[in-house]
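Box 3.1 — From sequence to structure: KH domain protein
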Amino acid sequence: MVNTEYLKIPKDRVGVTIGKNGKIKHQLEIITKTELKIDSETGNISISSTEETDDPLAIWKARYMIKAIGRGFNPDIALSLEDDDLILEIINLQDYVGKSKKALVRQKGRIIGKGGRTRQIMHDMLDVEISIYGKTVSLIGKIENIQMAREAIEMILEGSRQKTVYAYLEKMHDKLKRQEFDEMINGKPDMKEILREDLDTDEDFTDAEDEYNQDAIDAEENDEDIDDVEEVIEEEDFETVPETL
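Predicted structure (token representation):
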């Protein structure tokens, strides 16, 4: 029996998802043993199981990898979600700042920090990949690291001073190092069941995804201020494929 999941990504991320000569699409299909059909005109994507699909989470994993690319991550980082220890979390900034474009720009700037310093510190301290795209901040990392990064971002959004956030990040970094040492001595816990629960509770974002992504695209097209702080990702190795696959 063929199982199929559907999702939609921003049209300007379709070319990256396909990759040059279909390279990224092919990698996704090989890694997850699924079949992808991508409409380059609309951004609609279907993910279907195949006769080779042997992982019950394969479609979910493919979906998360594609969503990560759609939220601004480089494909190499998105494909790391093949690892059961890693998850994707997407934070909708409008939940914190409302619909004000000025507030959105200001808070995105604070999360990025001057010269990208704040984002880089979060990445280095917590070993979490961070993408700021449209109206979202997206995170890829281990579950506990993601929780810490989210707490730091929420501190920023709630008005905490940068040095207070840095102090929190340093404290969490020390905690992770202690846990890493404990795991070396006592072994590593099995996180697969936690990952399954996370993948199975994606309803809130999924229900609003089409409208949400379109809003993000519209905002980026109409608001030059947002473009000033938007993360720039080099796409020299990728090209948009004009025809529906």
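Summary of the box: The radius of gyration is 18 Å.
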